[in-house]
Amino acid sequence: QVQLVESGGGLVQAGGSLRLSCAASGRAFSMHAMGWFRQAPGKEREFVAAISRSGQRTDYADSVKGRFTISRDNAKNTVYLQMTSLKPEDTALYYCAADYAISQRTGVAASEYDYWGQGTQVTVSS
Questions:
Q1: Are 98 and 32 in contact (CB under 8 A)?
Q2: Tens-binned pLDDT, residue by residue, of the chain (126 aa)
């Protein structure tokens, strides 16, 4: 079992920045690929970013490339999502997810992830 707790969400003006954190406890954090997903009201959950076990590999949704950066600190059991140049369309509930992985792969599908946090709300005003 892995428990995930997100933090760092809030209200920000368009063009602003936020950094989300996801603290993990339980099974070996470094054995899990980590991902960020988001869900806006009335929409399906969508992939945002993912990072491999060691941080060697990252993947991003086209909509956030160049604006968001995913990183992890395995010593602190934490994964981060640095978000810059935020847009109103980034408004959503952001979820952290963990995928037990035996390789340096990343997952872009929610179905690939075994554990999920409760989410943190990000609201971007225009």
A1: yes
A2: 899 999 999 999 999 999 999 999 977 898 999 999 999 999 999 999 999 999 999 999 999 999 999 999 999 999 999 999 999 999 999 999 999 988 888 999 999 999 999 999 999 999
